[in-house]
Fold each of these.
Amino acid sequence: MMNDGVVTRSLNVYVAIAGVTLMAPIVIITILAFGSQGYMKFPPEAYSLRWFETFFGDPRWRSALWSSTVIALIACVVSTLLGFFAAYAFVRSDVRGKKLLLSFMLLPLIVPHVITAIAMYFMSGPFKLVGNVFWIGICHACIALPIVLLILLSALQNVDINLERAALSLGSSRFGVFTKVVVPLALPGIISAALFAFLASFDELVISLFLAGVKSETLPVRIWNSLHLQVEPVIAAVSAFLIGVTGFILLLDTLLRQLRVSQK
Amino acid sequence: MSLALVQADLARELGSISLRQVTKRYGKECVVDAIDIDIAAGEFFSLLGPSGSGKTTTLMMLAGFVAADTGQICIDERDIAQVAPQHRGFGMVFQNYAIFPHLNVFDNVAFPLRARKIPKPELIQRVMQALELVRLEGFADRFARQLSGGQQQRVAIARAIVFNPSIVLMDEPLGALDKNLRYQMQVEIKDIQKRLGMTVVYVTHDQEEAMNMSDRIAIMNHGRIEQIGRPADIYKKPNSTFIAKFLGEANLVRSKITHLGAAVASVRTAEGLSLHAQCDQTFAIDTEVDIFMRPERVVLSPSASLNEVHQDEWNRCQGTVTNLSFLGNILRQTVLIEPGITIVVDTQNSSQAFAVEKGDLVTVSWRVEDCVLLRVNQ
Amino acid sequence: MKRVSTFGGSWVLLLPAIALLVVVFLAPLVWFFVQSLSSIGTFSEIVEQFVAVLGSKAVLTALSSTNWISLLVTLLVLLLSYPLAYFLATHSDWRFSLILFCIVVPYFTSVIVRTYSWMVLLGRNGLVNNLLLTLGVINEPLTLLYSKTGILIGMVYVLLPYMVLTLYASLKAIDPGLMRAARGLGASWWFAFTRVYFPLSLHGVVSGSLIVFILALGFFITPALMGGPSDVMIAMLVERAVEVTFDWASAAIMSVLLLGATLGLYAIYYRVTDLRRMMGG
């Protein structure tokens, strides 16, 4: 039968292959984005930035980038703010039926995006909200809220309630306790939550597909539309850009984690 | 910088506290059951009891973090039930210190002064005075993670007194410290309290700590107050066997009442031994009671010396030594008087006149005035 | 007269978030279902429509496809994830960080980017085919894209991180001393694994599988891009009903089914896991 050595070696081999396979598509696409030909050949024969130039030079792609950014910012601010207050209430108050309430607030993660998207589209039509960047941001905020909640529930549980009691006993107002004790101590978590809320909205496709008109196409939607026509290399550049944004946010979050650890 | 400055700018109220019929229920459980306490201004008052006795809940109600279900909480005769915690003006010290980790020592201690918008020059002066008081002058720019437990607790104390509260609440502040440090801190806290003249309400489960520091102690059990009094008084004359055992080693001799006098009662044990004890509570003849006395009040002597002392003032019995324990400064001897009744005798190492060994026949004696009758614990 | 307790009163802070969800998320859902379904006509007409739509060939095929693909994807993901999660749970050094990195980066990358990458790789002239041709494993390029295989690869790739991370949390809680104890008692690795380790991980396996299956049911981006013309999943039909045929009633009917299945499965997941831990008890 199997002995330890065989198991360990096979596991290591498997994990190595799996790791490479997981990263390969992302890495390859990024490399291809820097290729100079008009077709996808790996490895590329020559490198250039022409597809990035096309991306940032094309008014439609630029407009999509702009829409994506604005929508993501709105979603980020709204979901982080509301999510922070809700998480605080979950952790501190003695509301009954917390489990049920939390499940309700996690519903956007559970209901299939398609259904959420078409329902929002259905209701947005009569109110002429289709294509409204602000409205799309609010809709994205609903999807980002569960993520913010989960991150901040954990962050706020690590804030000792006695610190808040101490601050109150020392004469601070309720608002002062928030600004001088709770927020500073939960700050890395808040920023993390905001970053991931931004990312969730920036990457979101399904809701944007239905709610964005031609004017407020987001990047993922533009990619989707372009894919149905042909597989252009510029899409690789846009993908590489999105991967870059993801990587950057993950890097920031890791740095924040270090901060959280050193604070303890 | 002198304490005179600190004491001089005391423009504060007296600081007397009273709780009237204060009750708190969590669901069906009655955590604090109709308690009445009166604390004088400037008194060091302890709430002592085992875990779950309701003492911390009582403190939290006093602080305003928990709302009482019924009853009144008054400070200097004013009902403060409607006052929010941040407006009550009490200093508060927690068991886990609750030092703000993101602020250094100076900013921690300055926190209440900043909340009161004290101008900067005065603020700096008062913070430094408070730090001096707790002997942490050089630590102003350190952070919590750079401080030991004892130092953190001193920061907490400095922070709680810097704004001259008339009342300070402490919730088992020394619980996390080791024994030697705890004793030292007890002395320091008591010293600060005496110098600043604050009323302190102190919650602890450590009976030695409570007795060492307090002017008066309230013993709590299952949400009720069992007894309130000065440490020496409760120690010598507990109201119940629970209190007797809680405060230290206790001898309990089971017997039945045979005669009731004005202040002294006569009892008889199961084997017919006749004893006398102080009797404060009302009993009936034939009631089963426990005679209580402290081991250090009992004298051990060789069985021959039976006739030396006045009979009326002493209880005397013979027994066999069943155990000897050397506890450092005390020799603890267990003597079997009759089946089921043992008496523990604590003798200071230096004062034992004769050597005792296991199995020896000895006489144990104690003064009638040193023992009390207690109701039998159900 | 009781004052509101200090921290108990903070429940009001829940209201803005609840308001947002009710107005922007819940209301449209309710409105959509109520309006689309009632526009069909009377109750019996609605039931008739239900039967008609759900009984139609297109829908039945899609349902069957969806079920099978989702089940297959879940199984594949489980088999591929378990060793990865086990590796993560048993290492805590640079190897842990590296593998976690390989899982987390795809996890946070946009679905469309991940799907697109596989489209590029799996095309007839794509990297995978080129590699296999050069290695001599095959003589002709395989049709990996625009087929069931393509959908499977795409969906497994997207859903794998969910399973790995869920399983990891569960496996991390298993005391490593148990395997050692079993081995010490003379058991072979396989015996110890099947009798001791795996049963303890069952909770995580079930949770992870439920999550992946639920997510797979609602997939439409990946199947739409990587599937063939005959590979239709239910979510794709819903999308088409809205965007192409403007048949809101059918969309609503299919959504009821999909949502019902999702919520039903989630109810099971809810029982199985412990939400309480997330709220601090």
Amino acid sequence: MIDIILTSLAISFVALLGFSIIKYFSLWSEADNLSIAAVSYGLGVGLISMQLYIYSRIGLQWSRELIMFPWFMLMLFVFINNIHSLSKFKIPKFNITSGINLILLFFIIAAASYTFFEALIRPVSVWDAVAIWMNKSKIFYFDQSITTNLLYLFDFGYPLVVSLFGTFIYIILGHINDSAVLLTSFAFYFFTALLLFSTIKKRFGLTYALIFTFLFVTTQNFVRHGGRMEAGQADLPLGYYTFVCLILLLDYFKQNKAKLLSLLSIYLGITGLIKSEALFITIAIVIPIIYQIYKTKHYNHLIILFFWVLPIIDWQLYKNDIAKPPNFYPFYQNILSWQRVVNTLLGMVKEFINIKSWNMLWIVYFYSFLIVKIKNKKELIIINTIILSQIFIYFLIYILNSAFNPESSAERLYVHIAPLVFFYLAIVFWKLIDLKDLRKSIMLLFSKVSSLFN
Amino acid sequence: MKLLFMKKVFLSLFFLWIILSILTLPYNALNTVLDIKSWFFLTDNQKREKIFGDTYDYIYFINSKTPKNSNIYIFSKDGKIGLIARYFLYPRKLYVTKDDSNLINLLKHESFDYISLYDKEKIIQNYKLFAKYQSKTTFHFGIIYKKI
């Protein structure tokens, strides 16, 4: 129980750290507190992991005091400097008095509650987490540094943000607890839902935001990655970071502010260090930024954007310098055949229509192409480009390398882009459907559902 | 007209989505209650046994019989043992293999404190039988040999 409380406090501390930095440096000045809170966790996780990485490289000890001290000082500094403006701090208020909002909120809390409990009742159990992500957390904690000769032992030399954050939790606890550490996965589930809610609410209102948040939190694959069985892997974190980057990107298109681009650049750097596949996602996000810089002629922004690539280059150089990658590929035949293309396509489509995992998400998404004209709608074009380019990249990986196949991994890969699909559909529905009609229909639906329960 | 129909289909799909989501609530809640009932009161070891089966039980056996600084050769035809062993036996140095045909040659260059064979028995020069594991629920067994 103490471990659960300590882990929850560590997660809250990490989110507060991210919040303090974004607020103090006004990195996202146009955003409301709820959106900032939602992205804060990701910034905190990235900073703490980078801190452990740097400490290990320069030979500094991973003690609780040495890790926490600089952040406490920073937060104290921010607090003292902003003490006069604390009275202006607005806690988000919601009008949830209407019946439909109350029902939706109850449903969301119920779904989040069982995901939370599921995260706690089992130790880490999914193979990839045991073999890779949480294994490294455990080993680094034992060794009190990044054990360089183990970097290629379990995988293709995956980046370390997720594993190092697990190590941070163990350092805070003072021992290994591979049940409590799964709360970090739940936190990614929670903060993704919060970001989806805050972004949709700001644009389309409370009820609409609650509907899409409800659809997100009840999607079975997110329930699994957030707590049940699949927790402890890097796919949900990557989905979260991709979504954060997209929201910041869309805001950057509206504001063209250098500070916002700095924040986006930091997030892109962290995203690139979640999983190897993340590199393609960051490139898909960087291309529209370069286009925007070119269009608005803010060429000095290119220097800010350049910071994105530094941690990724550093990681590539470091891992190749300290341990030569073994060649895994001779084990697999890389023969491109029509049969492989067809099987890959079938496997990927099979996962798209897997209602058990995704509910109607992908079916509705692909159906929307039949009725939504995205021409001249820049926002929709950007979101779709990122989503579809990733699907295409995964397709290429599957057909070119027999080490991977959709049956075993598409379910996880789609998690990387699924939050974007929720956001895209929220925009599309809003454009297509009269909200009054929608509200009426949904109220009717909920009244029928509640009468069923009565 | 066609577009209107397609929009109606779109809306219907959306409603179907909401209905399915509502239905997952009691399903998941019930599953969580059942999960809590069947997992909550188990010890950590019992939980791991339930997740990984005999394999974990055997790894736990090795863990309890060998010191942390030991160097162990592990043979098992079950590839999962390697993954679980690396997770649970760290910081022991492990050599995990699915093929033990090169063991004799390997022993000419490498020195292992322990040799662990899963579902196999062997006479190995300079090693003595140290501990024997028998699964409680299946016919699987394992033997740990210690260097003399």
